[in-house]
Each structure stands twice: as C-alpha cells, then as structure tokens.
Amino acid sequence: MQKLKRHLSKVASMGALSLSSVSKFFGDQVGVADLTLDIEHGQTVVLFGHNGSGKTTLLRMLATLSRPTAGTISLDGTPLSRDRPHLRDEIGVVSHETYLYDELTARENLRLHARLHGVDPDRCAERLDAVGLTHRGSDPAGEFSHGMAKRLSFARATIHDPEVLLLDEPFSGLDRESRGRIVARLRDLDDTTLLVATHDLDRGFDLADRVLLLADGRRVGDVTTATCAGPAAVERTYERRVAGSTG
Ligand SMILES: Nc1ncnc2c1ncn2[C@@H]1O[C@H](COP(=O)(O)OP(=O)(O)OP(=O)(O)O)[C@@H](O)[C@H]1O
What we know:
Blueprint: H1 2-13, E1 17-26, E2 29-39, E3 44-48, H2 55-62, E4 70-75, E5 78-79, E6 91-94, H3 106-116, H4 124-130, H5 146-157, E7 164-168, H6 176-188, E8 193-197, H7 201-207, E9 210-215, E10 218-224, H8 231-246
Helix pairs in contact: 3-5
The structure holds adenosine-5'-triphosphate.
C-alpha cells in the first residue's frame, strides 16, 4: 500500500516546474528578471507579452538550452542542468528551429527521434497521421512548406510523450486547418505540462489554465482563465499593468 501511495504521489508530481528567483541577463540587457513561479503537473500556461518581454528567454532556460544567470529551475524537484541530458527526455520543444534533418524524409525524421529517445519507432505512423502528413511521409523534410515543417516538428517534439512541452509561437505561419490540428493535439495532452508563448491570445486563452503576463522580463500578471472574462480582458489587464509599471 505504501509503495502504491509513493508511486501515485510520484506520478502526481511529474512535470511539475518550479522557478526560484530566476534571472537571465545578456550583459546589461534584461532577458528575465527575478521570476519565482510554480507550475503544476498537467497545467497549461500561456506566456503573453510584447516583443522582447522575455518569453523565448524563459522557454530556452526551461529547455536547458541556456542557463539562468541567477536562480534555480527544478523539474519534479530536480534542478535542471545542461549536465543532465536525461532530463531532456522529459522535455519537448517546438520553436522557430524545427530540429529536422532536411535530407531525411518526414517518416525517417520521426523514426530517428523515436530511437534517440528510446521509444518504439512503430508509433511514428500514427503521429504522422495526427498532424495530417501521412501522404507526405516519404518526402524529404527539406521540401516541406513552413507550415508542414512546423507540423512535423510538433510530431517530432512529442514523439516521446514528454512530461513538459514548451512551445514558442506554435501557431505562427499556420493556416486554419494546421492550427486546428495542433490545437486538437494540444487539447489531447491532458497529462503534459504545457508552456505556450504566443501573441495569439484568442487561441492561447482557450487552451490555457493560466496566462502569465510578462513585460521587460518581469511578471506583471498571472491570470487564471477560469475566472477571467476572456482574451480581450487579459489584453486590457496587460496594457494597464504595462502602463502602470512604466508610468
Ligand atoms: N542572445 C541574446 N543576446 C542579447 N540579448 C538578448 C538575447 N536573447 C534575448 N535578448 C534580449 O532579451 C530580451 C527578451 O527577449 P526574448 O526573445 O526573450 O523576448 P520575447 O518575449 O520572446 O520576444 P518576441 O515576442 O519578439 O519573440 C530582449 O530585450 C532581447 O533583446
């Protein structure tokens, strides 16, 4: 019984992120300033803010692609570090960089990433289908349009069912159908902690449990969507807070 309880409490905390006084500076330039934040397992948090507000900087630190200048980030209680590559098996990243090999076909790209993460490559067919690319599975990724490459990149980033999925502007450059497919896949990921940086608050709001408002690297708001009127209200709050912090 004790063993089962321990197992259940471990499962319940998987994908929980904790940031403690995290800052990132680029010389004198502030990327992220003194951010303390807890994100529960399975929560979807949208990062919203003007250009240069720190969204990508925060996602890159969570992806272990860059180190905080100060502070600590933990996943399920373990500090993230570039020296712990196995933590990357628990994190998926969809960003401007597709991490695809142009000369490999779509199917080969997925199979390669499945093998790199030690998961069964047989799941690739289903994942390719989920992003609507079965008919292009034998084509080299280098021949794909921007939107198709982004859909494939999404399938690549989620091939190993990561605990945490980080998405930087996942809807940009996608047509309605492609956006719909990605949104549907994100809705299916109940058990995954999602952080989505987007300017598309209409779409982001529908997915989000929380919207974290960033300005000049600082948190200027943390809105629970269940108790909020809608995306327009979030944008108004944001503009008010930004005006308040600069005025
Ligand atoms: N490699 C870098 N070198 C110097 N400054 C950087 C670097 N990366 C980010 N910054 C600075 O950090 C701040 C936050 O940038 P970041 O890219 O995180 O913003 P963002 O919210 O993602 O913006 P956008 O909406 O335009 O994508 C900006 O002032 C930016 O100039």
